[in-house]
Amino acid sequence: MKKVLIAYYSRTGTTQNIAALLKQTLNCETEEIIDLKNRNGFSGNLSGGVDALLQRQTRIKQPVHHPSAYDLVILGTPVWLGNLSPALRTYIVQNKKYLPQLAFFCTFAGKGNVNAGKRFLRLSEKNTRILSIQNNETPDKIKKKIENFIQII
Ligand SMILES: Cc1cc2nc3c(=O)[nH]c(=O)nc-3n(C[C@H](O)[C@H](O)[C@H](O)COP(=O)(O)O)c2cc1C
Hints:
Oligomer: single chain
Order of helices and strands: EHEHEHEHEH
Bound molecules: flavin mononucleotide
Structural class: alpha/beta
Number of domains: 1
CATH class: Alpha Beta
Mean pLDDT: 97
Radius of gyration: 14 Å
């Protein structure tokens, strides 16, 4: 059986919820990626959007789990201005040479998920399955999408 890690960044809990649903089925470990730059409130939102758009990195807390100890790492992020969150970008850059097989998921409000997926593929340089969940999708639909995703990763 594959050893799986889910590593995700979440500012307001939506991506974290999807990580928790994946974890329930996969029974694996999770790593929350912590952005050390303050992303709260209006200014945090703004800096997050700008940093994401300019594809900047940030400072993240030292992760607990080492990705090289896993067969598959599932990486998750909210979509920020059609891009990856700076925290996930930083995690990928910092761990690139240790990353095993990857899968990617993102949550988003309205659009930009396809572009975020492209950014992920370009940055990780790996052929990766992608799951994107829009905020208004029903729990039933999310459950089905997660089941399908797990089948193919
Ligand atoms: C700075 C910022 C930029 C965002 N940009 C987008 C976007 O381009 N497209 C979109 O659909 N949602 C966008 N959103 C909404 C989030 O992607 C969405 O609410 C996500 O599910 C939040 O995940 P989280 O609760 O894990 O942080 C943005 C949110 C923030 C804070």
